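During data preparation, we tokenized the protein backbone, and the record follows.
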Amino acid sequence: MARLAHVCASLMLVLFSAGSLVALGGNALLSVLDGAQQGHADLPAAISLGVSTLLVLCMDVAMLYAASMLRLLGMRRAEPRSMRLHRGVMTTVAALEAGTYAYMAWRYETPISVVAWALILSRALAAPLLSVYLAMARPLPVTARDILAQVELASGLGLIRDAVTIANDASASLSQKVALFGASAVMIPQDRERLDGLLAAVERQQQAEAVVMYEHESSLAASPGDEMREAEGAERPFALATPVPN
């Protein structure tokens, strides 16, 4: 994002400076072109045009250089007094850029209402400020709070995963799941009492089912001697009823 900001700031300065060049050297450029068409050179106009062009280029470079130095000094955590010169240059250049753009708009756009003038002046003031602001963009340094925030986020995600895994465990007891729910849910005292009563009722039901299951398994797990005696008792009437051959 910082690179994109620098690219936009450079484009803004170039285009804005082109408007300033038109405002400062428009008449000189027309004089030079007219003289070239007529076969003679208008030396004063050519010099004025060259000075205006170099002035605009110097203003652009000075503004970008001041913004880059402020960005570098900010990254190095330099003292504020070391930034005064760069801030002064940047403020002066921004004021000149805004004034020349407003002059160009007055000459070529011919505003006819107060609203148009207000928009032109606002645009003239905002353009250099935005370009400087974008030129000062820099990658944010990693601080101790950033590290703590990332560790807190990662540990929180791990805690959520483990808590959800325990809550979804089918082998976990009902009391454990209710304890997790009671610790995480927002309840009034009446709801908590009802939840405790529900847990007690469910536990009694589970204990009764466990007793019935145990008795059923005990009846099925009879000893082999008992099974043999029951089988002999069942076969005895048939043995008594069978005739003995002579």
In short: The radius of gyration is 46 Å.
